[in-house]
Design goal:
Strand content: under 5%
Number of strands: 2
Structural class: mainly alpha
Strand order of the largest sheet: 1-2
Largest sheet: 2 strands, antiparallel
Number of helices: 8
Shape: globular
Distance between the termini: 6 Å
Radius of gyration: 19 Å
């Protein structure tokens, strides 16, 4: 059975896509068993829509997100321990879902999506989302899954700022030089504009299928994660160099069989 692996604590979507896309042949030669992830249920679409190649690309993106969550926690836990801080007390809450990183990692993805569907129905303000989400496509299951993905990327944006502040507290505590300021992360409008160009991402994004509005929202997530991972690379460098004499960091990677 094929595997999708992150191979690194801060993976690139493009690298993960390139490593797996050879399995997506037409006509299909493999039957996939897509597992559940923190932000993706199994089956992926409760209405029993089945588009295996699309689902495989979505799984790659959400496995990348799962790995980034795990790496954020690996940054945070040793620093919180040093400062005698409780994670539940200090972690920021994810908007709309009102859960923190620990709760997100252990959440029931179907329950999260039900909350998202209710928020969409009530036109709740969801960060990193504009309505109408699709202009010509009307598939509520697609919409809910992608809105949750966009919201998760927004939460990563929050976590970057949180980790940057936490590092400041740690360097003050240890009385050592601080980390240089991270660049400002892009706005939704900036990412959306870039996503419309589709430069620097796999083409075709989904082999043998073309659903432009779905692909646009996927591109939004891919570009946002490019900015997030660049910031995380800088954090990783500081943690493994400047802080490694004082703290022990461990960064597990992930692999799933489909």
């Amino acid at each position: 059975m094929p595997e999708i692996c992150t191979n690194t604590p801060i993976p690139s979507f493009n690298d993960m896509h390139a490593a797996f896309v050879g399995n997506l042949k037409f006509p299909a030669t493999l039957l996939f068993n897509f597992p559940s992830l923190p932000t993706l249920p199994s089956p992926m679409f409760p209405s029993q829509i089945s588009i295996p190649h699309l689902e495989a690309i979505k799984l790659i993106g959400e496995l990348q997100n799962f790995q980034l969550m795990t790496t954020f926690l690996a940054f945070i836990q040793p620093m919180a321990d040093l400062l005698s801080l409780s994670l539940d007390a200090i972690l920021p809450k994810m908007p709309v879902l009102n859960i923190n990183l620990l709760e997100l990692l252990s959440a029931n993805p179907s329950a999260l999506l039900e909350t998202i569907r209710t928020a969409i129905k009530n036109r709740v303000n969801i960060p990193f989302v504009e309505f109408p989400f699709y202009l010509t496509l009307s598939i509520p299951d697609f919409e809910a899954v992608q809105v949750l993905s966009n919201l998760t990327r927004y939460y990563f944006n929050m976590l970057v700022g949180f980790v940057e502040d936490l590092i400041g507290s740690v360097t003050d505590y240890l009385d050592i030089a601080g980390m240089i300021a991270l660049p400002t992360l892009p706005t939704f409008a900036e990412v959306l504009s870039l996503a419309k160009t589709k430069l620097g991402i796999p083409s075709p994004l989904i082999p043998n299928i073309s659903i432009p509005e779905f692909e646009l929202q996927e591109a939004v997530g891919i570009y946002m994660n490019m900015a997030i991972t660049a910031a995380m690379d800088a954090i990783m460098s500081f943690c493994t160099n400047a802080l490694s004499s004082f703290l022990t960091f461990t960064f597990p990677t992930l692999c799933i069989t489909v």
